[in-house]
Amino acid sequence: MAGYPNETVKSIMERRSVRKYKDKQITAQELDWIVNCGLSAPSAINKQNWHFTVIQNADLIEWMNAKIKENMPPDAVARYKSRQDDRDDFSAFYGAPTVVLVSGEDGDAYTDANCGYAVENMCLAAQSLGVSSIIIGMARLIFVTADADAYAKEFGVPDGYKPLYAVCFGYGDMIPVAPERLEGRVNYIREK
Ligand SMILES: Cc1cc2nc3c(=O)[nH]c(=O)nc-3n(C[C@H](O)[C@H](O)[C@H](O)COP(=O)(O)O)c2cc1C
């Protein structure tokens, strides 16, 4: 824990987006803790207006990847490929064995924030357990065609909810580099 005041700060500081995963599923216990930490996130007026679809089915993850690719703008395709050594068979889910689709209540001003807190809780829980993660905003591209409602139903998304993020979990197969943090994003106002 060198350099960090406690394990929580260590997990926060060392969490990174991981874009390559081993072909090995996380344990049921790890998954339970990750999901429960997501469900323990704060939410405005305690609405808990999120829904998680836990996907541990490689065929379905591949189908989701194919849908994303169908609906991706060309510049995004290039960006994804470059992150995966320019491979043509790049995956928007980077080979992760577990993907959690996070949906939120439509029409509530705090839905996006509430779901974001749940997502980050899951990523930090994963980090503390030795499980890697990455948030996939591109997952929204699965649900942009006329079939969106039918697909959402198949995923078990409740009526009145919309899919917002996918989060990948698995054992990382790369050493992620910490992206540089931008300067000037904080100011302080103190007693004179
Ligand atoms: C809302 C959101 C959506 C994201 N969507 C994607 C995505 O679709 N694909 C991807 O490779 N990374 C995605 N990321 C990961 C970011 O690129 C990453 O968090 C950022 O580069 C900082 O790196 P770090 O997570 O290692 O600190 C997303 C992150 C957030 C917060």
Q: Give the strand content.
A: 15-25%
Major β-sheet annotation: 4 strands, antiparallel
Separate helix tally = 6
The number of E-state strands comes to 4
Please give the share of residues in helix: 25-40%
What structural category characterises the helix and strand content? alpha+beta
In this entry the ligands are: flavin mononucleotide
Subunit organisation of the chains: single chain
Overall average pLDDT: 95
List unreliable stretches of 5+ residues. Answer: none
Helix and strand pattern: HHEHHEHEHE
Ends distance = 36 Å
Cα-based radius of gyration, to the nearest Å: 18 Å
Shape: globular
Enumerate the strands of the largest sheet in spatial order, edge to edge or round the barrel: 1-2-4-3
Task: Please render the helix and strand layout as text.
Layout: H1 7-14, H2 28-39, E1 50-55, H3 58-71, H4 74-83, E2 98-105, H5 111-129, E3 132-136, H6 148-154, E4 161-170
Antiparallel strand pairs: 1-2, 2-4, 3-4
Descriptive report:
It is a single chain. By secondary structure, this protein is α+β, with helices and mostly antiparallel strands. It is built from 6 helices and 4 strands, in the order H-H-E-H-H-E-H-E-H-E. 36% of the residues lie in helices and 15% in strands. It has a 4-stranded antiparallel β-sheet with strand order 1-2-4-3. The longest helix has 19 residues. Flavin mononucleotide binds next to strand 3.
Task: Please give a handful of descriptors for the protein shown.
192 residues, alpha+beta, four-stranded antiparallel sheet, globular, binds flavin mononucleotide
